[in-house]
Amino acid sequence: MSDFDLAFPFALGAPSVSAQFRQHCEDFVVNEVLGFSPSGEGEHLLLEVLKRDDNTPWIAKQIARIAGVQPMDVGYCGLKDRRAVTRQWFSVYLPQQSEIDWQQLNSDTAQLLAVHRHHKKLRRGEHQANEFIIRLRDCQGDLELLETRLNAVSQSGVPNYFGEQRFGREASNLHEAATLFATSLARDNSARKKGGRRKGERRPGPSGMVLSAARSWLFNQVLAARVERDLWREPMAGETTELSTGPLWGRGRNGSAGELLALETEALAPWSDWCHGLEHAGLAQERRPLVLRPMHFTWDFDGPDLTLSFTLAPGQFATAVLRELCRLEIPAISAD
């Protein structure tokens, strides 16, 4: 498989209202909520940074440069959007009480807000939530119908799709995954014909980003199949929990059964090589909820402009909410 259609099915049907999205960085504001206070002691520093039109790895690189450490010594809880205004925490390993002029981090696009001692490095997904304030400009179409959609999202949530950014620009991470799994399959077939891999032979390790994109793509395939059948909101027969969930593929038994297992097997049949590749990449089979219910969801119209405010858990995508509301018209500059 080599064609990656990212136009996944809509729960509410394709939106008829269009809106300008990310015309300015200030149209997309994110506040990272750690959910805990810095401990005040330890071998790491926590830095809270307000950034505008900068990506997370760039800020992390600047922190490492100023501290005189390796990039791997800098941690953060997740990647935040570049074309946005975001408040985000970083950790840096500094066991010695070094006198560092952190004001060097300040620039036209970044501002240091706070520095605290802490006892451990920040890890991906460790934070509690992300708070969003998003302005959609110049909404065109039936605004009463948009109001109906807003109420539906508030009451029932949206499909918990992984957002397009997970898959890279022009689905580049998925194309890389396709090449990876095709090469791996060819190598395995060749090894079988020759009697197996030689002792001690190792495969080159794929990047975590590519594997994450592949798992996300497979999850979206299952979710799309359930959205098309209007079976995504409630658990199906064969569900392992009281929530409707889909697989994050990896090694181990798929816990679903019955009707649900049949649906997932059918949805993933064209991607059997990917499933096989992920099983051999050292990832464990997991489940992810199919329903995203934005917390503290409010909205306000200012003429044709719509301002949304809501909170999401780590791993949830704001674009999964927005896509159910409007057709988003994005300026080319925000592609980065």
CATH architecture label of the largest domain: 2-Layer Sandwich
If you consult CATH, what is the topology of the largest domain?
Pseudouridine synthase
Strand percentage lies at 15-25%
Main beta sheet: 10 strands, mixed
Mean pLDDT: 91
Concise summary:
GO terms for molecular function: RNA binding; tRNA pseudouridine(13) synthase activity. Its EC number is 5.4.99.27. By secondary structure, this protein is α+β, with helices and mostly antiparallel strands.
Please explain how this structure is put together:
By secondary structure, the protein is α+β, with helices and mostly antiparallel strands. It has three domains: 18-26 and 133-157 and 295-330, no CATH class; 36-118, Pseudouridine synthase (2-Layer Sandwich), CATH 3.30.2350.20; 164-292, TruD, insertion domain (Pseudouridine synthase, 2-Layer Sandwich), CATH 3.30.2340. The chain has seven helices and 14 strands. The protein has helices spanning 56-67, 143-156, 172-193, 208-228, 258-268, 272-279, 318-322; strands at residues 18-21, 28-33, 44-52, 74-76, 85-93, 110-118, 129-140, 158-159, 245-248, 286-289, 291-292, 295-302, 305-312, 327-329. The strands form three sheets. Strands 1, 2, 3, 4, 5, 6, 7, 12, 13 and 14 form a ten-stranded mixed sheet that branches. Strands 8-11 form a two-stranded antiparallel sheet. A hairpin with an 8-residue loop joins strand 4 (74-76) and strand 5. Helix 3 (172-193) packs across helix 6 (272-279). It is globular and about 60 Å long. Mean pLDDT is 91; it is low at 199-204.
